[in-house]
Amino acid sequence: MKRHPIGITILLFLLSISIISGCISSQNTMKRGTLTVGVCAQYPPTIYEENGNLAGFDFDLMNEIAKRMNLNTNFKIYNSKSELFDALEKNEVDCIGSRTVNYERRKFVDFTRVYYYDSVRVAVPESSSVTLLKELKGKNLGVIEGSVSSELVESYLTNIGCKCLYYDTPENLTNAVENGEVDAVIGHEMYLEHISTKCNVQKRYLDEKLSVSYWAIPINKNNPNLRNSINDILLEMENDGTLDELKLKWYGKY
Question: Which of 32, 81, 101, 243 is most deeply buried (CB count within 10 A of its CB)?
């Protein structure tokens, strides 16, 4: 058999370039000196815009992480969760703000260690006569479209006989509460607390906790170095109390 040493040499060279490029890609955040974070700034108190500036738990968290990595932060704002995950897969961002961990998402993104968990519950005004989920029959239930809560509504609450009103953003759901369009709201406790405070409505939770969600930072699967670095810092922040301070500041609990 005739050998082709030049062809083999070229092939090995191209392969080595590919490997080196992959290594550089996984460390590109460190090289640029900037941590680029994708956010959907419609979810107070986690991340939102106030007077043209970003604020919230994620804003403080990602700035603290970048600071401890000796990096600057660059926040890119997207209009939806699907746009966020698309941006991550296309390497437009290094990571995205806090999202719930689930099996489907794990198929195409990595997650850092979990640093917060929260329950999905149904809240009603303090003055409401409703005390049990089954008593929502015939009532208007507000929910964020495409959220974990909406999935629970479709799989669990529709047989109760309540009328589900879907809203595209937390802001619109908050407006619905203010305007009296809904009799009850389903969502994570962190958002329900925010809605209650903003609307100045005393709320009461129904006893049942419908689900527990675990929150972490999604990272591209091709960037394990960044995931490991952020995990180290999250653990450091847990140990020195910084993480608890941020959770207490924005969510009112650990």
Answer: 243
CATH class in words for 26-112+217-251:
alpha beta
- Contact between 64 and 6 under an 8 Å Cβ cutoff? The reply is no
Q: Residue 142 and residue 176: Cα distance in Å, rounded?
A: 8
CATH of segment(s) 117-212: 3.40.190.10
d(CA 218, CA 73): 16
Task: Return the amino acid letter for 57.
Answer: F
* Angle (deg, nearest 10), helices 242-251 and 189-199: 50
Q: What is the pLDDT of residues 170-201, one digit of tens each?
A: 889 999 998 999 999 999 999 999 888 888 88
CA distance 34 to 71: 5
Q: What residue ranges do the domains of the chain occupy?
A: 26-112+217-251, 117-212
Q: Is the Cβ–Cβ distance between 233 and 212 less than 8 Å? A: no
